[in-house]
Amino acid sequence: MRRKLGFFLLVFPLSFMAFGCAAPKMYYWGEYSNSLYSCRKQATEANLIKHKQILENIIEESNKRDLRVPPGVYAELGYIYFRQNKNDEALKYFQLEERTYPESKVFIQRLSQAAKAKGDIPKSDEKLPQKE
Amino acid sequence: MSKRPFLIRITFLIVLILFITGCGPRMITKSEKFPLMYEETPASILILPPMNESTAADAKDYYATTIQEPLSFRGYYVFPYEVTTEILKMEGLYDAELLKDVPLTKFREFFGAEAVLFSTIKKWNLSYVILASTLTVSIDCELKSTKSDQILWRYNGTVVVDLSGGSSGGGIAGLIVKAIATAVASAMADYVPHARVANYRALSSMPYGKYHGEYMKDRELKIIDQGATTSAK
Description:
A: mainly alpha, 2 domains, 66% helix, B: 233 residues, alpha/beta, Rossmann fold, 10 helices, 8 strands
């Protein structure tokens, strides 16, 4: 009898830990981290194309699951378009990032400005100073 | 008959005392350890390229791919590392050693970041002891405010993995098999999954940010007090 009680005392908190904490997942990141790692190991065209697809997949899946798209994903995808000179697409994703995360405003404005100017990222007024 | 409950009680008491006086690690609440996190409540974090103090030259690039995702789960807006490092590179700032001397307010002006994450790879190596080998990944993380320049949070995550594989029976034959298994395991040793675990260990002590359901509700949550961990600088 004692043993049984002890067993239950052990199992109950354990089961709470196992099930109780299973809050709904915040974000869907899919294969992001693995894909990035592959790009680092071999920066081949194929790996880079795959990474873009991974980003698109994250957005699609997040919408399907009614989750917020993880921070930075819209911006990273936008930046890929920006580098391909597809500036309208780039701007679209930059705006999505800012709408989802207002904290990105300063950063996004800098990127958007560059996309609108179709040039390089504008440098800060002064160079980031470096101590000697 | 009456002696037994007494014995049980004594044992129980001893165990309890040991438990309380703490033979284990010292515990501390998050708000005691990182009060500034709750005062400043930074909403956005810029990840800077890691500093590498390990002997592995490629550790830096690989480690950098593992941090953005777990950090986002702490509830912060995390700037896309792939994009921000490229921009920093254009500014001539890729070396973490240069970055640490940039006034932090600059990251606020340039990206709008309220905090920056410095990380230092302390260990990223295999070590061999006779017929066994262990893999170690150790990361120091430090979050600094771009408002006050203060250290908001600092923690270390370390993972040590025994790569020797399970015991494979006794005798010389068993040892040889084990040695081969170790050699194979070491050749294929992949640090990145272990680096991810190290990150989760370090980040688990970080108070939650505004996008997490437990934001501001984790003050009393206990974490292991690592004391004054070595600075990431």
